[in-house]
Specification:
The complex is a heterodimer. By secondary structure, chain A is mainly α. Chain A contains 7 helices and no strands. Among the domains of chain A are: 49 residues, no CATH class; 61 residues. By secondary structure, chain B is mainly α. Chain B folds into 2 domains: 99 residues, Orthogonal Bundle (Rna Polymerase Sigma Factor, Chain: A), CATH 1.10.1740.10; 90 residues, Orthogonal Bundle (Arc Repressor Mutant, subunit A), CATH 1.10.10.10. The chains are: A mainly alpha, B mainly alpha.
Chain lengths: 164, 190
């Protein structure tokens, strides 16, 4: 193992992460190489002191701040629930009223449409009634004792037959 | 209170159970956050965020892992998000143009002309090691923090990081090799 490879694994060796052959090779090299063993010693001082520093403690008010935040969150949740309930109580009747209005408008529109077609039909029916009254219906033959027949015979003779 | 009992009470909404949870685990969460962020105020803010998240989501906790593992996972994720957000804000504010590439960024302080002895104070060494760790890639940094400072076994680190034990070993391996490169200028005087 060369120096570069050894030195790359020094921290692993210090932490006991090297096993088997690698560990044996490292130990053998360190026995014979003063440069690497000095590096190991210097690095172990640095590496082992990493946990020596006192742990920083959190502020004693951390819990108070957290509790306040949770309280605020719960208040907002209740507010949201209240608001949605109130909206619900307003929205439903408003929806019904709106539907009713829409139904009125549509019904009114449909009613106008049907009455306009009915008036055309009634006019036509009235005209046909008048034509029938005086036997002037083009597709109806003149009844024998009708004035129309008599007039037709009197004026045309054969024409009356053609007309029929 | 046993962990399972505590979780059941938390899921039902007992405030006293939540306070007990906080008292039991706040130091642990704070330490992880402090190691990851390097700043007490930020660590406290993130710790608060972690417990607030726990309060809102404890009903979804399915007891598939230990409570501490779950807390570690939330804390690590929040710390990484915080760092990402901070970096983005720094880039957007353009402050980085006027900053010197600090020692915190490089991760290593070169040995002074007076030699190593002047620098070998506990807090200085700790700061140097912490800076070197902070300059590692994200996954290596997390694995190293959990192993070095929390003393977690490989299996638990794998659960926190949601990866295999082999990945954890590999990350730790690479982290220590990279760390050596960053720390070696410190001992180059020898």
């Amino acid at each position: 193992m060369n120096h570069k490879k050894i030195q790359k694994k020094i921290l692993l060796y210090l932490d006991g992460d090297l096993l088997g052959n690698e560990k044996d090779e490292m130990q053998e090299h360190l026995r014979s190489c003063s440069f690497c063993s000095k590096r190991l010693e210097a690095l172990s001082r640095v590496w082992r002191s990493r946990n020596a520093m006192e742990l920083v403690k959190p502020s004693p008010y951390l819990w108070t701040r957290l509790a306040e935040r949770i309280k605020q969150y719960e208040c907002n949740c209740h507010l949201f629930t209240d608001m949605s309930e109130r909206l619900g109580s307003l929205v439903r009747p408003a929806a019904f009223v709106l539907l009713f209005l829409i139904a009125l408008v549509v019904g009114n529109y449909l009613g106008d449409f049907s009455s306009s077609t009915a008036s055309v039909d009634s006019e036509k029916a009235a005209k046909e009634e008048v034509a029938r009254m005086f036997y002037m219906d083009a597709f109806e033959p003149y009844p024998p004792e009708s004035i129309g027949k008599a007039l037709t015979i009197a004026s045309n003779g054969k024409g009356g037959e053609q007309l029929r | 209170m046993l962990e399972l009992e505590l979780i059941k009470k938390l899921q039902v909404g007992h405030h006293s159970a939540f306070k007990e949870l906080f008292q039991t685990y706040s130091a642990m969460v704070f330490n992880v956050c402090f190691r990851m962020l390097g700043n007490q105020q930020e660590a406290e803010d993130v710790t608060q965020d972690v417990f607030f998240k726990v309060y809102k989501s404890v009903r979804q906790f399915r007891c598939e892992s230990k409570l501490s593992t779950w807390l570690y996972r939330i804390a690590i994720n929040f710390c990484l998000d915080y760092q990402r957000r901070k970096k983005r804000e720094r880039l957007l504010s353009l402050d980085f143009i006027f900053e010197n590439p600090g020692q915190e960024e490089c991760g290593v302080v070169a040995a002074s002309e007076d030699g190593l002895d002047a620098m070998l104070e506990k807090s200085e060494i700790e700061r140097i090691v912490q800076n070197a760790i902070n300059s590692l890639p994200k996954h290596q940094r997390v694995a190293l923090t959990l192993q070095m400072y929390e003393g977690l076994p490989y299996q638990e680190i794998a659960e926190v990081m949601n990866c295999s034990v082999a990945s954890v070993e590999s990350r730790l391996h690479r982290a220590k090799q990279n760390l050596y490169k960053k720390l070696s200028p410190l001992i180059k005087d020898l």
